[in-house]
Amino acid sequence: MQRHERQELLGALRGYLEELADSGVDGLPLEPAGASAPPAGVTATAPVSAASPGGATAPAAAGPAGGDRSQRESLEDIRSDLGECRRCGLADGRTNLVFGVGNPHARLVFVGEGPGRDEDLQGEPFVGEAGKLLTKIIEAMGFTRSDVYICNVVKCRPPQNRDPQAPEVEACSTFMLRQVMAINPRVIVALGKFAAQTLLATKAPITRLRGSFHDFHGIPLMPTFHPAALLRDASLKRHVWEDMKQVMKLLADETQ
Ligand code: URA
């Protein structure tokens, strides 16, 4: 089993245990698998107003604070629909398709732009230099990478790390939108202009979008600078930290 597969499995297991704990189960019976029924639905508080985004085929998702998870499309369904994708020219240059990693029931989802060289080689998002910085940000927020979910707008590396082109974003972003709707997190962080503009269907610059919450189908979305931009200009770090403090506050307020 590859490292990213192991991490996906650990993320899934952690998410399942968290869901059990949320619904009041504080122990597991020592019975063979399948001998006990799964607990009834998770706590519901608010509905998601939107239909599936971007032409996605996800069934109507329950609200950001709960609902019937069993009615939602799973990440496995989306991954298998994506298959050995050749929907755009980026397929020709890839080593690995980079789907996403982390907790499928994450309360916090990070969306980046597209895989770079390291990600293409390892099949996991945000593992290169920008990824190390993102990991530090996640840890400074009090989480680990396996607590959250991380994915990108495009799943294959653009040549020479160029920006993804419109037809590539168009062919691929529906899968990212479906991933977000399947996870149904409490908060989304859009890393950089591509993620923010794709999720919010806007052309507004990241400098104008960042710093406040926007609505993504009922889920608060915080755009912020991409970690690669912080590697080029360290003075942006304090803005990102201000944005992440707002995200942490929203998540903390929610659990009270
Ligand atoms: N930059 C991104 O936007 N995504 C990655 O996975 C890595 C670098």
Structural class given helices, strands, pairing? alpha/beta
Provide the CATH architecture.
3-Layer(aba) Sandwich
| Percent in strands | 5-15%
Overall spatial form: globular
The helical percent reads 25-40%
Q: Give a count of the beta strands, DSSP E runs of length 2 or more.
A: 6
Q: Record the strand order, biggest sheet.
A: 1-3-2-4-6-5
Instruction: Supply Rg.
Output: 18 Å
Q: CATH H level: which superfamily?
A: Uracil-DNA glycosylase-like domain
Kindly provide the name of the CATH class: Alpha Beta
Q: Which whole number gives the mean pLDDT?
A: 82
Stated plainly, the CATH topology is called Uracil-DNA Glycosylase, subunit E
> How many H/I helices?
9
CA-CA gap between termini: 39 Å
Bound molecule kinds, no repeats = uracil
Total domains, how many? 1
Largest sheet: 6 strands, mixed
H/E topology pattern? HHEEHHEHEHHEEHH
List segments where confidence is low: pLDDT < 50 over at least 5 consecutive residues.
Answer: 19-63
Q: Your description of this structure?
A:
This protein is α/β, with parallel strands linked by helices. The protein has a single domain, classed as Uracil-DNA Glycosylase, subunit E. It is 39% helix and 10% strand. The chain contains nine helices and six strands, in the order H-H-E-E-H-H-E-H-E-H-H-E-E-H-H. A six-stranded mixed sheet has the order 1-3-2-4-6-5, sandwiched between helices. A hairpin with a 2-residue loop joins strand 5 and strand 6. The longest helix is centred in the N-terminal third of the chain and has 20 residues. Bound molecules: uracil (URA).
